[in-house]
Design a protein that fits this description.
The chain has helices at about 20-50, 60-80, 90-115, 125-150. The protein is mainly α and about 160 residues long. The protein starts with about 20 loop residues before the first helix and ends in a 12-residue tail after the last helix.
């Protein structure tokens, strides 16, 4: 097209794609982990406060603390880790919440299988299956989902590495 840059720069070169190699993946993973730790701290502190001094029931306390943790994680990822993607509108927020809900479901599924399916009913078994194995699997799911669905960069269509 003459007179437009839609198909490349003014010298006719094709548009550049943003490189998303191992270095970028490592940087995103470290940023994602740092934001995740902060969000986890907010979730845990709020849950503890709502269960203790506020004396809320466990499900209400967890729902509120999970929501606050998601808000911190979204803000940290949008303004920090994935700031180069410039997410706009309500769609990224909704996708972020859906990915985090899927991660929470993975954790609950691991706990359910361990506790009810395998009969491992001790507190230690619940912690290992829900907060250990479940958290590890949920973190992998969240990293993939947030990176490929929520904060996509041009050229990245949905592969794990870029």
């Amino acid at each position: 097209m003459v007179g437009t840059r839609a198909w490349g720069d003014r010298h006719g070169a094709p548009p550049r794609r943003r490189f998303t190699g191992p270095r970028t993946t490592r940087r995103e993973l470290l940023g994602f982990a740092a934001v995740g730790l902060l969000a986890y701290g907010v979730d845990l502190a709020l849950f503890t406060g709502l269960r203790g001094p506020a004396a809320l029931d466990p499900l209400t306390a967890k729902a509120l603390s999970f929501t606050a943790g998601c808000a911190v994680a979204y803000g940290g990822n949008a303004l920090g880790t994935y700031r180069h993607t410039r997410p706009r509108g309500l769609r990224p927020c909704a996708l972020f919440l859906a990915v985090n809900a899927a991660g929470a479901a993975v954790q609950l599924l691991c706990l359910t299988i361990s506790h009810y399916g395998l009969g491992l009913t001790s507190q230690r078994a619940d912690i290992v299956s829900g907060a250990g194995i479940g958290m590890a699997l949920a973190t992998v799911l969240r990293f993939w989902g947030i990176r490929t669905l929520v904060f996509r960069t041009e050229g990245r269509v949905g592969s794990w590495t870029g």
